[in-house]
Amino acid sequence: MSCRMFVEIFEVGPRDGLQNEPRQIATEDKIALVDLLSTAGFRRIEVTSFVPAKWVPQMADAAQVMAGIARRAGTAYSVLTPNLRGYQAARDAGADEVAIFASASEGFSRANLNATIAESLERLAPVAQAARADGVALRGYVSVVTDCPFDGAVPPQAVAQVVAALRDMGCHEISLGDTIGQGRPETVDAMLSAVLDELPATALAGHFHDTAGRALQNVEASLARGLRVFDAAVGGLGGCPYAPGAKGNVATEALAAHLAALGYRTDLDMAVIARAADMARNLRSA
Ligand SMILES: CC(=O)SCCNC(=O)CCNC(=O)[C@H](O)C(C)(C)COP(=O)(O)OP(=O)(O)OC[C@H]1O[C@@H](n2cnc3c(N)ncnc32)[C@H](O)[C@@H]1OP(=O)(O)O
Ligand SMILES: CC(=O)CC(=O)O
């Protein structure tokens, strides 16, 4: 066992990576991608989302994907849930972890969730309550933590307020999303400075899209603040249907290599990751 410090890469490719693909990807291809990723050694994989098909058509087969995957001991299978109906479907599908998501800006909240921030938090409260009652692990996301495609620069304090609300609902971890990939190490650092007043780094994750090519720099800024969990998507897949211009998540293979160069271990099988990245890219271009 290496004595290098461990950093978890939370694989979001099957959900965040694929959700924006215009061509409907076959359910069996999604299952094959998750099954391959399961052999790479991830502690957690975000498989799909239980959202209305009219909002995100690519995720319409969430229940079938969850039913079809071969679960591996040691990997938890996580899904995104926007409301109680989505949570109930996720629970019925046997999700190990559910993620609720809110926005730090009103403009993105309206576009992505059809609600104000306050309304969206009100809608998420019963989801959190149900997850706690059922003993299902609850993750939180805050989107647009530095820049919003509608409202511009996002004040760090606005992010901290939503983080505090999700913490109070019982999220064991909150992932901070640079949804449109416009964050810079300085803006990420300022945002983290405010957020860390509410939650320790051990309960935070970084979620950086690579639109402007700064995702790895933003990961480094977050490592310096103590974060040790980062979301990534094999092949750099991704984008958000409700964030104009948003590109893919930082690529899992690039992040793992970068972390290794910085002296961290991820315990992932890089040969499998390379195959999964190829598979993901082929799904996109097929
Ligand atoms: C940054 C990111 O990448 S975040 C992930 C990407 N973005 C998303 O997934 C979008 C998430 N947003 C949403 O899911 C939606 O905005 C919601 C559900 C939160 C709110 O949308 P609204 O249209 O206001 O919800 P509303 O409750 O009116 O339901 C709309 C329809 O969806 C159905 N519906 C609601 N929730 C769900 C669900 N979880 N699963 C399936 N269908 C659902 C309703 O029955 C209704 O159906 P109808 O039109 O046939 O009557
Ligand atoms: C929910 C997410 O996918 C996070 C983000 O990019 O805002």
TrEMBL record:
GO terms for molecular function: hydroxymethylglutaryl-CoA lyase activity; metal ion binding. Residues 7-274 form the Pyruvate carboxyltransferase domain. The keyword Metal-binding applies. Keywords: Lyase, Metal-binding. PROSITE patterns: PYR_CT. One of its GO terms (biological process) is L-leucine catabolic process. InterPro entries: Aldolase_TIM (IPR013785), HMGL (IPR043594), PYR_CT (IPR000891). It comes from the Bacteria. Its EC number is 4.1.3.4. NCBIfam families: PRK05692.1. Belongs to the HMG-CoA lyase family. This is Hydroxymethylglutaryl-CoA lyase. The lineage of its organism: Bacteria, Pseudomonadati, Pseudomonadota, Alphaproteobacteria, Rhodobacterales.
